Amino acid sequence: MSESNRPDPQVKDLDDSENVSTNPSGNRPFIEVLQATMSRRRVMAGGLTAAAFGFLAPSVLARRRDDDDDFDDDDDDRRERRGRRDDRPLLNFQPVSLSDFANAPEPGRQPVISEDYEYDILIPWGTPLKSGIPEYTGDPTTRPSADDQADMVGIGHDGMTFFPEKARRRRSNHSGVLCINHEFGVNTHVLGKVDPETPDDVRLSQHAHGVSVVAIAKGFGDKWDVVIDAPQNRRIHVNTDVDFSGPVAGSALLANAADNPFQGTVNNCSNGFTPWGTYLTCEENFNGYFGTNNGDPIGGFDTLQDEAYRRYGFSQNGFGYGWQTQDPRFELANPDYANESNRFGWVVEIDPDDPDQRPVKRTALGRFKHEGAEVTVGRGGRVVVYMGDDQRFDYIYKFVSAGNWKAMRAKGMSPLDEGRLYVARFDDDNTGEWLELTIDDPVLAERFVSQEEVLTYARLAADLLGATPMDRPEWISVAPDGQVYCTLTNNSQRTVADAANPLAPNPDGHIIRWRDSRRFTGRKFVWDIFVIAQDTHGTEESFSDPDGLWADPDGRLFIETDGGQQDGLQDQLLVADTHTREIRRLLVGVGGDEITGITVTPDRRTLFCNSQHPGNGDPAVTNFPAPTDGVTIPRDCTFVVRRKNGGIVGS
Ligand code: FEO
Ligand code: CA
Ligand code: CA
Ligand code: CA
């Protein structure tokens, strides 16, 4: 949710939830304050040095080489240096210039794409996954029924992964399964009213959230479409049965007196995928779906749960969805469901090929407002999962599996169930340390009684370890040269700068990157700032509020935005050359939308990305993806983006 697009009160509520810090820890471990301007000059200059020397300033590099901790100079580094010797520019497309956008036929009402590219639209909200379900096309006089919505594409398109069909050991560029998150849709958009009035209203809202698993294929005229009734097609929503796994499974922290089954996933934001072919969906602003009609639930600080309610941002009205008025699971003051809220805030694993699989909540990855889960394979074949906790002054985490992922799976174990969870501390000398969230740490043992508590209340544990409060960590992407990029979308309430968050306030965000020791698995890292959004304003590279992110295998960084853009723009998809730092604009969305979610076919000649909450649901702003008529309800949908010459996307 963006900071500046706040056309209706419920959107504002959601916005505020991310933007209002709930972190009272006062963690400022490196409060050597830098003047914002000085700092910006320094990071940009440092960045150029870093580009010339392969990310690290020479002094840092020399120091790190002397350390015990090992910064691998591995094959990927060599590959990157090879790539740099190759002088072919990474970005060859004609960008959408500021004047191209301003002079487009319907800027803000319809998207604008580079003249070298074209797009189609796929799976708008209301697309049936099964035959016999009527399509919802944005008729303002009606909405889908709750039952039909459970067999339709939901709303709030966000993170997604394309899993290509495998035929004769080849990965298809023409067909596969798309797993896509449905982060949220406000009541005015989904229900056409502010408050739910019946249990069915709440069920419609709940069914519009979650995940779609949908088979798609390229058909006539190279147009992609849903394979209706494909065996993989399924909706996972707030009332779908799920399982818990890892250290918190079986814990009393998840038990309710009502003995209700484990159900549902909500506010599915960004995503990840594993080397073994599963999809990870991440629960972000889960707090906003709970509320109470029985007074303030967040009374004192008598219990850890009370403290957690506050630290995770629960409140009497939540985001105004009103689910608690019709569904006791979401009533915070109902003693029968006292621990229902602890069942949300996790990373959830989904098998795209098995429609009968119950999604599994992987508790070893901790409970916080998960933006995404970027998985890579590190030293010894261990999987490493990078995760942002998107709220003002919250943290960046990583998980490292206990062993080699193939060996663990061969023993019937999930690599996501056993391992170590860390939170990042960024030091002001461009180094940093991953701090382990373990009950074996005496500081945590003083506050918590078990690892179950440490993981369920991960934010509280991270506070005690002295993690660095960041400017809203959103997406993380691992580049093939070993650098890890993270968007810090904005923080207009920062009053004290530090080196990693160098602007106070920081209304437009920045992108930070780091390299971990021991090939992703170590506790040490070195970091620098890749770009500060404010520095692009007034130029053709203008963007604000970076959010979605993908580092491609060639050294390009795809940047998606969510927030008020400057220079007359709307939210956009841009491509950066990580070597030269040049940025080109590929696509501009419509008024009120956010461009998010990114995945490609194996040949990278088709890219999928999303328009989330176009017009914030208001047909007076846009009717996209319908033609402009001033009436049709705009619907979240997926762009299918291709180069007209058939080349690799971004090139
Ligand atoms: Fe769901 Fe922080 O974006
Ligand atoms: Ca955002
Ligand atoms: Ca969003
Ligand atoms: Ca986001």
Which features would summarize this protein structure in a list?
alpha+beta; Neuraminidase; binds calcium ion; 16% helix; five-stranded antiparallel beta sheet; binds MU-OXO-diiron; 13 helices; disordered N terminus; 30 strands; 651 residues
Word description of this protein:
- This protein has 651 residues and is an alpha+beta fold.
- The chain has one domain: Neuraminidase, CATH 2.120.10.
- It has 13 helices and 30 strands.
- The strands form six sheets. It has a nine-stranded antiparallel β-sheet with strand order 13-14-16-17-18-23-22-21-20.
- One calcium ion binds next to loops.
In short:
Helix content is 16%, strand content 27%. It has 651 residues and is an alpha+beta fold.
Q: How would the blueprint of this fold be written?
A:
Blueprint: H1 9-19, H2 36-52, H3 58-66, H4 75-85, H5 98-102, E1 112-113, E2 117-122, H6 146-149, E3 157-167, E4 170-182, H7 187-190, H8 199-208, E5 210-218, E6 224-226, E7 234-236, E8 243-245, E9 268-273, E10 279-283, H9 304-311, E11 347-350, E12 360-362, E13 374-377, E14 382-388, E15 392-394, E16 396-404, H10 405-410, E17 419-426, E18 431-436, H11 442-447, H12 451-456, H13 458-465, E19 470-471, E20 473-478, E21 484-488, E22 510-516, E23 524-532, E24 546-551, E25 556-561, E26 572-577, E27 583-588, E28 594-600, E29 607-612, E30 637-643
Parallel strand pairs: 8-12
Antiparallel strand pairs: 1-27, 2-30, 3-4, 4-5, 5-6, 5-7, 9-10, 10-11, 11-12, 13-14, 14-16, 15-19, 16-17, 17-18, 18-23, 20-21, 21-22, 22-23, 24-25, 25-26, 26-27, 28-29, 29-30
